[in-house]
């Protein structure tokens, strides 16, 4: 077949914009209620970075109903940044007169081997996450917010989607695509499937497929959004998607650049109980008088202040008494001077977060549909298939006795065994029982015959104690079937 590098994409791909509806009456907060500058400032406040601001201002001036795009993989639990921060951002954008398209990337989650690649389970998780956004207060009345399932949309318009994906893939070299793999939570050094290498081309195509004017994703998705703008240069397209990248909340422990679903202690999750939130915040890294790299202050700045427009600290009179901070700058000044101590800040932060999360807890305890979704997701979300991380583990582990592998992030261990009676000594069993008192256990079946036991080690104090884990242990009475607590 003759090559032609200048072959343009089909006409459907040419426009980033769509004709606005004749009436915007379904959106009660129309742009006419705000000035152009107010709309610009509201939209701009969503992003830590904007590429480019002049393009954003021009878009808001000329288009009454710009289309914003955000997407997510249904992959398990929802942390507070995905739940509350996204709600805050979506409500700001719709208030400024934007139409929000939220792309539920179920096919992408399958490509990325989330939920073991089971599309049915992925869809269940997607429905659960939408239910959380409704409960926490995302303004989805009318047609301001539209949830679109990637599998449904791509199948119904395959003749538009796949030529676009192929055109993007054809115009980019493999090293350029590999630089985008961090959008999947992977690195360039990871061993990737062919499907995962294709993933960035598909996500880039989503932007044009949805006719998005603004890409409103996290800073970790920046590279693929820049790829979309470069693609516009390649095909000589004038109107480029504007990149509005929101801030990434760090993990709660020292040195964690972002929250991790695989480490529960690093994040507040949307369905965490009140006591869990208090415990996690109490253990969070919060050095006195130090603002930079302080995750507790990050939570206050990006969640509490946007939600309440204030931060209330309750103290005994001898410790300074009650104080309400009206701005983050005022709080920072007090904290740096030592006027506000972590011992007073942490309980106030936990209380504020619990106030935000309480409607979600109420919704999932009272609404029958939500309660059923939560039950179905809970049955799946705590079980991580060992094969996700060790594809050849079933061929490697031959012993009927337990094997211990140190792998993945710190404090994550896996035990694997065949379902036969292991011959472990009484001393080994006692060691395991003693160590298990401070651990939280999860287990699930993996593949055909082997079973994997997942240990999440939250309470091991030091390396020496970790090394005390027995290499071979007896769990005869505790491992039967597919259980977990």
- Please state roughly what percent of the residues sit in beta strands, choosing from under 5%, 5-15%, 15-25%, 25-35%, 35-45% or over 45%: 5-15%
Question: Termini separation (Å)?
Answer: 59 Å
The whole-angstrom Rg is: 25 Å
CATH topology heading of the largest domain:
Rossmann fold
Strand order of the largest sheet: 1-6-5-2-3-4
CATH architecture of the largest domain, please?
Answer: 3-Layer(aba) Sandwich
How much is the average pLDDT? 75
Structure description:
The chain is α/β, with parallel strands linked by helices and about 475 residues long. It folds into three domains: about 10-245, 3-Layer(aba) Sandwich (Rossmann fold); about 265-380, Tyrosyl-Transfer RNA Synthetase; about 385-465, no CATH class. Helix content is about 40%, strand content about 10%. It has helices spanning about 35-45, 55-60, 80-95, 105-110, 120-135, 150-155, 160-170, 175-180, 195-210, 220-235, 275-285, 295-310, 330-335, 340-365, 370-380, 395, 425-435, 465, and strands at about 50, 65-70, 100-105, 145-150, 215, 240-245, 310-315, 325, 405, 410-415, 440-445, 450-455. The strands form three sheets. A six-stranded mixed beta sheet has the order 1-6-5-2-3-4, sandwiched between helices. Strands 9-10-12-11 form a four-stranded antiparallel beta sheet, with no helix packed on it. It has a two-stranded antiparallel ribbon with strand order 7-8. The longest helix has 25 residues, at about 340-365. It catalyses: tRNA(Tyr) + L-tyrosine + ATP = L-tyrosyl-tRNA(Tyr) + AMP + diphosphate + H(+).
């Amino acid at each position: 077949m003759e090559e032609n590098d200048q072959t343009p994409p089909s006409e459907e791909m040419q426009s980033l914009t769509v004709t606005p509806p004749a009436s915007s009456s379904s959106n009660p907060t129309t742009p006419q209620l705000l000035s152009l500058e107010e709309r610009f400032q509201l939209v701009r406040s969503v992003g830590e970075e904007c590429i480019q601001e002049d393009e954003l201002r021009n878009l808001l001036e000329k288009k009454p109903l710009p289309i914003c795009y955000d997407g997510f993989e249904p992959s398990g639990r929802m942390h507070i940044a995905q739940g509350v921060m996204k709600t805050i951002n979506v409500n700001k954008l719709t208030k400024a007169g934007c139409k929000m398209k939220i792309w539920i990337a179920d096919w992408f989650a399958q490509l990325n081997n989330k939920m073991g690649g089971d599309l049915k389970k992925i869809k269940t998780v997607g429905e659960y996450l939408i239910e959380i956004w409704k409960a926490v207060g995302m303004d989805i009345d009318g047609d301001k917010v539209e949830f679109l399932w990637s599998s449904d949309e791509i199948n119904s318009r395959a003749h538009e989607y796949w030529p676009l994906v192929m055109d993007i893939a054809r115009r980019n070299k493999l090293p350029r695509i590999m630089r985008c793999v961090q959008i999947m939570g992977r690195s360039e050094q990871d061993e990737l499937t062919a499907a995962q290498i294709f993933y960035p081309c598909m996500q880039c195509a989503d932007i044009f497929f949805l006719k998005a004017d603004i890409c409103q994703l996290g800073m970790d998705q920046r590279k693929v959004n820049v790829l979309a703008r470069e693609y516009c240069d390649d095909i000589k397209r004038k109107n480029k998607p504007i990149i509005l990248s929101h801030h990434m909340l760090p993990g709660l422990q020292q040195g964690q650049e972002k929250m991790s679903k695989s480490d529960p202690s690093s994040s507040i999750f949307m369905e965490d109980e009140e006591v869990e939130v208090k415990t996690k915040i109490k253990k969070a890294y919060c050095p006195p008088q130090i603002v930079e790299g302080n995750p507790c202050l990050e939570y206050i700045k990006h969640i509490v202040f946007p939600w309440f427009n204030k931060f209330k600290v309750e103290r005994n009179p001898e410790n300074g008494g009650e104080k309400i901070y009206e701005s983050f700058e005022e709080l920072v000044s007090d904290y740096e001077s030592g006027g506000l101590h972590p011992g007073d800040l942490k309980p106030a932060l936990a209380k504020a977060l619990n106030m935000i999360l309480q409607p979600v807890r109420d919704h999932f305890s009272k609404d029958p549909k939500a309660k059923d979704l939560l039950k179905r997701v809970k049955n799946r979300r705590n079980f991580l298939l060992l094969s996700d991380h060790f594809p050849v583990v079933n061929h490697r582990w031959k012993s009927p006795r337990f094997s211990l592998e140190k792998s993945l992030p710190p404090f994550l261990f896996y035990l694997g065994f065949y379902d036969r009676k292991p011959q472990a000594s009484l001393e080994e069993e006692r060691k395991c029982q003693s160590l298990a008192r401070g651990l939280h256990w999860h287990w699930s079946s993996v593949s055909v015959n082997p079973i994997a036991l997942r240990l999440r080690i939250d309470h091991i104090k030091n390396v020496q104690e970790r090394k005390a884990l027995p290499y071979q242990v007896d769990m005869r009475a505790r491992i039967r079937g597919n259980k977990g607590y």
